[in-house]
Predict the structure.
Amino acid sequence: MPEPARILLVANRTAATPRLLEAVRERVAHGPATFHLVVPRHPPGLHKVVDPQDGDGGEAERTLAAAIGPLSEAAGSPVTGNVGSTEPLMAIEDAVNLAPYDEIVISTLPKHISRWLHLDLVSKARGIGPKVTHIEAVDEESPVP
């Protein structure tokens, strides 16, 4: 029996949206897979500009905690996770340096409001190595609070 594919999920406000959950279900339908979710810290308000290295007041931890259950249910097995750097590309690089992944799935807000897409995160992540898949939430999906 082949080893399960190792999939790195990267999401913040879209960590438990229907589109990402469906992507996890579809991936599992194609063969065994394990998933690890990284939720980059998201500095609130002006702290993004003034001191982007500051924490996010626990927002990322709450997002991670709220997403693990639905993602594990979609995966049919436990999903692991951690909170990463405030810089999403650094959070991805840190995860890839700690464990090998076969694929990176980046879930973003819709293009017109996604900071990650404005930073060209998906293209930059492709330079890291593993295959990168982008999942974009739609406007009517409500992000994790």
